Amino acid sequence: MTSDLRRQLILGAAKRCFARHGYAGTTTKSVAAAAAISEALLFKHFPSKAALYAEILTEECEADPDFELLLGQEPSTATVVKIVAAMVRHFLGIADGPDDEEEQRLRLMASSHLDDGEFARLLYTKIDDLMGPKFVLSLESAVASGDAVRLAAAPRDLFWFAHHTVFMAALTRLPSPPCLSYGTGANLERQLSEFILRGLGLTDIAITCYLDHELSQPPARPATAESA
User: Fold this and answer.
1) Residue 127: pLDDT over 90
2) What burial letters (b/e) apply to 132-150, b meaning 16+ CB within 10 Å?
3) What does pTM read for this prediction?
C-alpha cells in the first residue's frame, strides 16, 4: 500500500472516530485500531492526535465550495472585503448557530491556547498556507489601486489581527447568555467587518463601495455542488 493511500485510510478511520466519540473521546490507539494498523505506524504519518484532527479540518475547509470560490477570486480590493466578510460570517455563524460540532471546534481552539497550543499552532499554519497568499496579494492590490493605505504591519500580521478579532468576538457569544451584548448578529457582522477593514488600511470610500454589496449576498455556492 502506498504512503498516500495509507494516509487516506487513516484519515477516514479518524473521521469516523471523531464523529462518534468527539475530540476528547478519541485516542490515537482507537484510530489505529479502526484503521487496522499499529499505533506506531499511525505516528509515522501523524505525530499526534492534534495533527490528525487539524488535517481533517483542513481537508474539510478545502472541500467547502464557498472556500474554493473565495480562493478562485482575482486579487483585488473586492477580494479583501470578501475574505473579511466571510471570516466574520463564519465565526459569528458558529457562535449563533445550531451546529454543535463547529461550536466544539471553536471551544477546542480556545482551550488549546490555554494548554500546550499544539492544535492551535498546527491549525494556524494550515490556515496561513491556504489563505495567506491570496490575502497578501489582494491587500497589495488594494493599496496599488488607492483603496487602502500601506501600514507598517506586515500583511500576514494584519490577517491574523483580523482573525483573532473576530475569533474573540465569537467566543464572547458562546455562553448563554453571551458574555457581552453587542446587539443583533446582523449589526455585529457589519460592525466587525468595518472595524477590521479600517484596521487593514482600507478607505471609507472603498469600504462603503464593496461591503454593502458583500453583506447582502448569501454564501456563494456552485449550482451543482453540495456543502461539505
Assistant:
1) yes
2) eebbbbbbebbbeeebbee
3) 0.86
